[in-house]
UniProtKB/TrEMBL annotation:
Oligomer and partners: Homodimer.
SUPFAM superfamilies in alphabetical order: PRTase-like, Winged helix' DNA-binding domain
Listed InterPro entries: PRTase-like, PRTase_dom, Pur/Pyrimidine_PRTase, PuR_N, PurR_Bsub, WH-like_DNA-bd_sf, WH_DNA-bd_sf
Organism: Paenibacillus abyssi
Lineage: Bacteria, Bacillati, Bacillota, Bacilli, Bacillales
GO molecular function, one term: DNA binding
Domain of life: Bacteria
Protein name: Pur operon repressor
Length: 275
């Protein structure tokens, strides 16, 4: 790479870090990339670190020593998170989203790149300090949420299928009880998709009693894997604590009431700030 002026180098370094979250980058790598002295690189990183923290873009962690360097940790300020979550609640309260059975139509929201980008950064913020190897979700609506979160945590995504696909090879399948309709359903995961003893973050779009999430947890036991956390886009508040199959999870929004006659819904912020 050609030698850049300092202003241009700062811009390029910032973009380089933003594109590589949770990745340790040595000062030597930066010095070689920009043909600059390590002392100059250190000064540039100090400027970027200050801007990141002041603007709520995240944190820049410095690791000393021969194997050290810098690592960008995406974060979102509480104020910005609350504003986004309140906007999500307002959108979910639109009467036209109410479907028969009291369900909410959310597919269009899960297809908005900017919104998924914000949701991914929020999940990445709350789970930043967890030791995680992979993100897991079940097809299909949870996929955009999982990939958005994985982008900011720089982790791979594993997708649990409703049935085994020939192209997936041998798989592990289990039966689980759906929390919403109490039906016995099946989910499967290819044996090659997940290493044993992996630490897994589960991401899902909607949780009522938690049957689907519990099913994924049971599936993880077959791989001798552990659950590092659970994040859900929307949870139902119409389920009593005695019916909820899990307690340790983070939700962005909470559906507390649905009137099928008037199509009025009440959606409030979830437990994101008080998990």
């Amino acid at each position: 790479m050609k030698k850049l002026k300092r202003s241009a180098r700062l811009v390029e370094m910032t973009q380089y870090l933003l594109a590589r979250p949770h990745t340790l980058i040595s000062l030597t790598a930066f010095a070689d990339r920009y043909q600059s002295a390590k002392s100059s690189i250190s000064e540039d990183l100090a400027i970027i670190k200050e801007v990141f923290e002041e603007e709520g873009l995240g944190e820049l962690h410095t690791l000393a020593g021969a194997a050290g360097g810098v690592k960008y940790i995406p974060k979102m300020h509480k104020g910005e998170s609350l504003s986004i979550i309140k906007n999500i609640c307002r959108q979910l309260e639109q009467p036209e989203r109410v479907l028969p059975g009291g369900y909410l139509y959310m597919t269009d929201m899960l297809g908005i790149p900017n919104l998924m980008n914000d949701v991914g950064r929020m999940f990445a913020t709350v789970f930043a300090d967890r030791d995680i190897d992979v993100i897991m979700t079940v097809e299909t609506k949870g996929i955009p949420l999982a990939y958005a979160t994985a982008m900011f945590l720089n982790l791979p995504v594993v997708i649990v299928r409703r049935d085994n696909k020939v192209t997936e090879g041998s798989a592990v399948s289990i039966n689980y009880v759906s929390g919403s309709n109490k039906r016995i359903q099946t989910m499967s995961l290819a044996r090659r998709a997940l290493k044993e003893q992996a630490r897994v973050l589960i991401i899902d779009d909607f949780m009522k009693a938690g049957g689907t999430v519990q099913g994924m947890m049971d599936l993880l036991h077959e791989f001798d894997a552990t659950v590092a956390g659970v994040g859900v886009f929307v949870e139902s508040g119409e389920v009593g604590m005695d019916e909820r199959l899990l307690e340790d999870y983070v939700s962005l929004a909470k559906l507390t009431a649905v009137d099928l006659k008037t199509k009025q819904t009440t959606v409030i912020p979830g437990n994101y700030f008080t998990p």
